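Question (not urgent): is this output format expected?
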Amino acid sequence: MELKLSKPICFFDLETTGVNIAKDRIVEISILKVFPNGNKESHTWRVNPEMPIPAVTSAIHGITDEMVANEPTFKELASKVHALIKDSDLGGYNSNRFDIPLLAEELLRAEVDFDMKKALSVDVQTIFHKKEKRTLEAAYKFYCDKELTNAHSAAADTNATYEVLKAQLDRYSDLENDIPQLSEFSAHHKFVDFAGYIGYNKKGEEIFSFGKHKGKTVDEVMEKEPGYFGWLLNADFPLYTKKVLTRIKLSKMNNKL
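Got this back:
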């Protein structure tokens, strides 16, 4: 079953130096852009992360320091990546919790003002786990009856993810072929930021979802403990989380004027 699209969707996969969203870097990115008319555009880049790739990580994806030493940095690629995805929804495998947050960090470091306000995200892993609870290799075998060769190659994983989503639509009659519905179904929880530090309460107000102020509204904490905002901006939190907090603070200030 082909996807019903009202705008392009970019399936993408990252290979990285590790899994710390705030600190780790991309070493390979592959993007498969699917257009409403069915046309596809594919790009894969190796990236110099400007930091050592741990041996344990290289053992997983096969990319070493030597292999990326002469590749462009992400900052050099950022404008191309952003131009490709800026008009699109996003799709991936575990993308809501890892790939999108880490990509956002890299784009913000490169001074590209990335935002998801006008985009939806479809996490194929979440659909799979809600329906079958397995890995990407198992999903590919289960849904497509194919063996996933070159697993942990960004290009192979990206194309497998796209094929799995189409096969999921064929298999599950209750799974609507509609990107907003797929985005809703593949979301774990509603968060304001990608990393899940800022959530919503039942009234739709932004609240902290961690630490000593967990469950309290951001407005309330900033009002009663203004120093907490400064601590958050200087602490080791993702750049996108800091961007969201700054937006909330500015919005509150503007409302007082």
